[in-house]
Amino acid sequence: MAASAELRVDQLPADPLLHILSFLSFRDLINCSYVNRRMNELTKHNPLWKTLCSKHWLLTDADRVLSGTSWYCLFRQYYRDLGRYITYYPVLKRAWEQLKTFLQQRCPRMIASLKEGATELELNNIEAQINGSLPNDYRCSYRIHNGQKLVIPGLMGSMSLSNHYRSEVLLDIETAGGGFQQRKGMRHCLPLTFCFHTGLSQYMALESAEGRHKFESFYPCPDQTAQDPSAINMFITGSSFLDWFTTYIHNVVSGDFPIIRDQIFRYVHDKGCVATTDDITVSVSTSFLPELSSVHPPHFFFTYRVRIEMSSKASPEAACQLDSRYWKITTSDGNVEEVQGPGVVGEFPVMRPGKVHEYSSCTTFSTHSEYMEGHYTFHRLANKEEVFQVAIPRFHMVCPSYREPAGRTKTSSNYMSHLDDNGEEDCDGDSDSSAT
Where is this region: Disordered (predicted)? Predict the structure, then answer.
């Protein structure tokens, strides 16, 4: 600041603001009374302030008119309140606005569950309560929206199986603070989400401890084979709050996660995972379920959703019925299993032009990744003797990165289980949906 205070404004180039900004940080600009006084006189109406307000605070002309102040004063006002978050604010504010625009169109009831932003004082009080510091990206997001009310559906995604349902709520700061963990195996961990149905939470590590990295997010997974009952393995979901939250929102607003019955479902679809045979197209999306999985013993649970669609341009004579399925399943350790059986999840869908049939099934493996591929066998309704096969594209199922607690003695297990009597299980009962 000593060098900054010695600047002589009358010796600066034609646009003094550009020169001053090259020397000073934003904190200097706000705190240096000498520079503030001269900048007020010389640059109060410089158009660069409008650019800075748009870049860092996402403010518009309408915001400026509503404030009744200059762009310079508006920048200072926002900086006083949110200056510590200037690196994160535009990214998180834009993500929140994109999410709300999407929800208003596709899942409007979720909008009402969002809470107003927390204050600096409220965030400071939580830090005092847990005797720890919250990362600035987390604080910044909670200044914009303080999580959501404890309602269903949860903002952070849903998943359903025939006997299992989950929907994760983004916790408000007060509830998160109340769930702060200091027990062995989960020290310095703050919950980010909560599921009423499973009791499952995603956590953020506020310190590097017990095999975790500072500020990464994860699902805890008890180590059932360790001698220490408090040993926790972790399925990693993000390297920081910013990474975790913005990645999720991108998947939602880009359409990568499907909307089913006004809820966000965390199925991941590889855009290349589509196969068309004549008039029938098959595509597959997948999801990993951490609450039904474990690292020790190795038991990785996946669900997959299959969409079968007949082109609306197909001729009526192309109508057909599914008779059977064939799967070839390959695990990362090279094991191959073949599964054949009648129908899909106990059904034999009839396909006509424009018809869509969707179903979900699930599988477990003792390796961290696998891929499946195969075909369906159909017959024509007009001629049962005309039998043909429709390709199922290869799709991969890979569990998230996982980490073991520090100092654990590694064990191994080798087994594979497929969850159905003939290779599939009806998981959500929403098959034979209409085309949308």
Answer: 406-436
Q: How far is CA 7 from the centre of its chain?
A: 48
The answer to whether 417 and 367 have CB atoms below 8 angstroms apart is no
Q: Which of 244, 245, 259 is nearest to 158 (CA)?
A: 259
Please list the residue range(s) of the chain that carry CATH number 1.20.1280: 12-84
| Sign of the torsion angle spanned by Cα atoms 230, 236, 239, 244 | negative
Indicate the pTM of the whole model: 0.83
All CATH 2.60.40.1470 domain ranges in the chain, comma separated: 267-403
* CATH number corresponding to 12-84: 1.20.1280
Domain 267-403 matching CATH 3.20.20.60: the answer reads: no
Q: By C-alpha distance, which of 87, 169, 183 is closest to 135?
A: 87
Signed CA dihedral, 79, 82, 87, 92: sign only:
negative
Instruction: Pinpoint the residues of the chain covered by CATH 3.40.1580.10.
Output: 89-252
pLDDT tens digits, 79-120: 999 999 999 999 999 999 999 999 999 999 899 999 999 999
pLDDT in tens, 378-428: 999 999 999 999 999 999 999 999 998 776 644 433 333 333 434 444 444
